[in-house]
Give the backbone structure.
Amino acid sequence: MMRVLLGVLLLSGLAACQRAPEVHQHAFFAFGTLVELSVADVDPQRAAEAAEAVEQVFQEYHRLWHAWHPGPLADLNRALAAGQGAYPDPSIHLLLELAAPLAERSGYRFDPAIGGLVRLWGFHADTPPQGPPPDAEALRAWRAARPSLADLYWDEGQVFSRNPALQLDFGAFAKGHALDQAIARLRALGIDHAIVNAGGDLRAIGRRPDRPWRIGIRHPRAPGVLASLQLEDNESLFTSGDYERYFEYGGERYHHILDPASGAPARGTTSVTVLHSDATTVDAAATALFVAGPEHWQEVARAMGLRHVLLIDAAGVAHLSPAMAGRIRFETDPPPPVRLGEPLP
Ligand code: ADP
Ligand code: MG
């Protein structure tokens, strides 16, 4: 908890030191992280309504989407594992519809059907696992079954799986979707200027009265901020890193972003930051590009329609798309070595 709080405080430091009185702040815990709402250009009454609405979205979705606690997603997983069809909860139905094209375009590097693998590694638990890594035989069996979202099919409103090893886990993009829902709720309340920041992953609309929203990107290996940028109207920025949930065992770091092809934590990347309009897409994309790594991130970014990407590789090199290079400012001295990618259309 201390580590999470510290990271969030550091991230919000940039914004905090220039906070103007007309920006209303509200913070609460959800999805295991601190969620901070900032609303500008409204009276205190409207700001309080906004806070309540956003908090409600997060609590509701946390309950619905948790793969391992009792609830609609756990029920659905049980039915699919038993080879039965099920009518999913409408919010889960929507998530499945959103996930299908994102998973396909990512080449199934982002694949919410790998819940069984997440569970084998122990990253489903509320507290991070201590190791050891899973038994080699269990991993081999999972790889042989290789469930993927493409194994799902629909028949008269019911969803079925061709693969009994398929288990849904929306951890890689549920937070993004909750942020999109939160922003939709704010807009419905007539709010045009706000930012919802869930532990450094955020979506913004409008601007502060005095200037655009400004945010920091956390350094994957040092306390503090690696880079900063100003957000334009309606932009989301997400970072996936190997430092968020991991254990060390036998001198190796095992983190929570798994490569469905190998069945193990993805190698070669320490963090990926993606900037795009909606938060559902950037959350899925940050996970997919992390798995793609320094060799393949550009082809996956192109396939997913992204223009703004920053990938820090295991050697500390910053791989940047040209559009992202034009937006961020490195805050470290010296800045990291940069490798500029090809322009993304
Ligand atoms: P965070 O939410 O911590 O920033 P991510 O968005 O990258 O991290 O999501 C990681 C979570 O998603 C894991 O805890 C696990 O539940 C799930 N997951 C891990 N690897 C994948 C993957 N390749 N595709 C889809 N989901 C994944
Ligand atoms: Mg993600």
Q: What stands out?
A: Confidence is low (pLDDT under 50) at residues 1-17. Residues 103 and 130 are 29 Å apart (CA to CA). The first helix runs from residue 2 to 16. The two ends are 41 Å apart (CA to CA).
